[in-house]
């Protein structure tokens, strides 16, 4: 399981079980239920290779293997998201709702929208794999010793490149674009307004002349 920054998993009154290959993204909340209207004590169970999007809330629910929970979705007590099912971003899934395999549900309250295509189902599994691979990259970077990190900084600085286009995108270009001559135009062939500008710059830099 890979948990991003600012996630909060609170198993204070019950258990949380997150299986292999699952990723829970930034600002998500996973909590459990001690009591509810049905008088049930509910853990939160998340299966293998599940993707939980940013700012989702999972409370006393079950998300089966290779399911997908979109950004900002809320799953309340007793919800079951079956394998290869998808909860759309921003959906509010009411208590004890079961989302069948191969379906996407969305809205407030969440309802059936349509069937998932084979390509979309494959994407759910691939999404979890992609995040798992990214987690390994993060782990490798975080495991580097201080000396190696400092050496890489020196290399990056040595081989860094910066050009006019980059400066322009950042809004820090020092030379106005109208004063920059293309490489294939000689100064004496430039438009008159640019020639005057170049002459003025030369005089200003050599007042004794």
Main traits of this protein?
209 residues; alpha/beta; 7-stranded mixed β-sheet; 5-stranded parallel β-sheet; 4 helices; 28% helix; 21% strand; LbH_gamma_CA-like; Trimer_LpxA-like_sf; Hexapeptide repeat; Transf_Hexapept/Carb_Anhydrase
Describe the structure.
This is Hexapeptide repeat. Belongs to the gamma-class carbonic anhydrase family. Its main location: mitochondrion. InterPro entries: Hexapep, LbH_gamma_CA-like, Transf_Hexapept/Carb_Anhydrase, Trimer_LpxA-like_sf. The chain has 209 residues and is an alpha/beta fold. The strands form three sheets. A seven-stranded mixed beta sheet has the order 1-4-7-10-13-16-17. A five-stranded parallel beta sheet has the order 2-5-8-11-14, with no helix packed on it. It has a five-stranded parallel beta sheet with strand order 3-6-9-12-15, with no helix packed on it. The chain has helices at 118-142, 146-158, 164-170, 192-205, and strands at residues 2-3, 8-9, 16-18, 23-24, 29-31, 44-46, 51-52, 57-59, 62-63, 68-69, 74-75, 80-81, 86-87, 92-93, 98-99, 103-106, 111-115. The chain is 28% helix and 21% strand.
């Amino acid at each position: 399981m890979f948990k991003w920054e600012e996630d909060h998993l609170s198993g204070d009154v019950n258990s949380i079980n997150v299986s292999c290959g699952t990723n829970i993204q930034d600002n998500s909340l996973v909590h459990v239920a001690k009591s509810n209207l049905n008088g049930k004590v509910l853990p939160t169970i998340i299966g293998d290779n599940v993707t939980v999007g940013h700012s989702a809330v999972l409370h006393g629910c079950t998300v089966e293997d290779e399911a997908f929970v979109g950004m900002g979705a809320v799953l309340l007590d007793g919800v079951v998201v079956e394998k290869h099912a998808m909860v759309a971003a921003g959906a509010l899934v009411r208590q004890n709702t079961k989302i069948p395999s191969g379906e996407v549900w969305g809205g407030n309250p969440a309802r059936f929208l349509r069937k998932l295509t084979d390509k979309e189902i494959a994407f759910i599994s691939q999404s979890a794999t992609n995040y798992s691979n990214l987690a390994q990259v993060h782990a490798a970077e975080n495991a580097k010793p201080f000396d190696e990190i400092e050496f890489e900084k020196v290399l990056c600085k040595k081989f860094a490149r910066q050009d006019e286009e980059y400066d322009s995108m950042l809004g820090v270009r020092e030379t106005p674009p109208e004063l920059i001559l293309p490489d294939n135009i000689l100064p004496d062939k430039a438009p008159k307004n640019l020639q005057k500008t170049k002459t003025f710059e030369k005089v200003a830099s050599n007042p004794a002349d």
